[in-house]
Design a protein that fits this description.
Blueprint (H helix, E strand, L loop, with lengths): L7 H23 L1 H21 L6 H38 L7 H4 L3 H4 L5 H6 L3 H13 L2 H36 L5 H38 L11 H11 L8 H18 L4 H26 L6 H15 L3 H24 L63
Family: Belongs to the autoinducer-2 exporter (AI-2E) (TC 2.A.86) family.
Protein name: AI-2E family transporter
Organism: Halomarina ordinaria
Amino acid sequence: MDPPSLDRSKVAWVVVGVALAGAFALVVYSFVGTFIFGLFVYYATRPVYERLKRRIYPPSLAALVSLFVLALPALSLFAYVVAVGIQEYQRLSVREGIDLGPLEPLIRPYIDVSYIVEDPQTLLNDPTLRDFAQQAFNDALGYLGFIGNALLHVFVVLALAFYLLRDGGRFSRWFYRRFDDRRGILRDYCRAVDTDLASIFFGNILNAVFTGIIGAVSYTLLNEVVPGQPVPYPTLLGLLTGAASLIPVVGMKLVYFPLTGYLLVQQYTTGGPLWFVVLFFAVSFVVVDSVPDFVLRPYVSGRNLHIGMVMFAYIFGPLLFGWYGIFLGPVLLVFIYHFATLVLPELLSEGSVRPYSVDPGVLPRSFDLPEGSPVETATVGDDPDPDRATDPSGTPGDAPHPTSNRPSDGD
């Protein structure tokens, strides 16, 4: 048999495709943290968008409302809480000589810029709000470059989340029509990944974010009940409760149980009111621990991933990739896990994962089918896979595969 002739035009297009793929990979690599955070915002707001688009038309307006009325204020509040938490960590590290080891370089660059904002305790004690606003404005002028760069990244995050919300369903249908295989492996894989990413981002991480905010606000307000600020570093402790909520079983109890014991000893030795310790424990258990768990628990239930694997992804992600590793680590875990459970067994089996066969009736007469091809013997109107469902329009990519038991792919 003569070797196939080299199609120069095809080779040229392959080279162009490789170059374009390389350029796209370079862009994603340069802004990987921004893209991953945009993916988080998309999954965090998608349940809200799905409800709003039934009442708000067009879908673009529903997506804007989801992002600018809900997501943007929540992100701003979380950024403020994190900045105050960094300030409290700086004071604690100077006072006690604490070093976070490999995590220290991740926090150090943001210590100076965090002082643009004032902590809530200072705001509550400052009688002149005008002086505070003037001081904050003067501090912000010294970080115009940093603020401009941050606003650019925020714009990219919101734009990515907006188009995923509005056009995600359209893109998924196009993707399935072009690349889905006869046995529905790609569709099952994408749906499994989508389900677990939604569980992780809207369940675990969003729960940690809201828990951190609730904890920081609650502990700061508790310090206003009793003079002397008995709760040390309230914002930092609130953020620690949010981070501890990612730990299975015990969760944030690792933070407020020891702190309750510390406050009990402190109030007893200094003659302070012991009822404050009871109040602190009640607020921690009911407001900080139970409320986020009851509100978001239904969205976390039914996970396919082992909670231990998810916990290690949260731990090793920031250590390997930096701040965005807390998002990228679980994403890589989801892709690897479902590849090993869904795709790898198919690759190791005797069967082959092939794209859908093409009906010969739609091929040009000059198109030569390879000898022995399963399409060769098909006739016009025959379905090469009788078990495959086809939508009324005859487009093979839009109908769910009968073996797929995954939920919606995010339309």
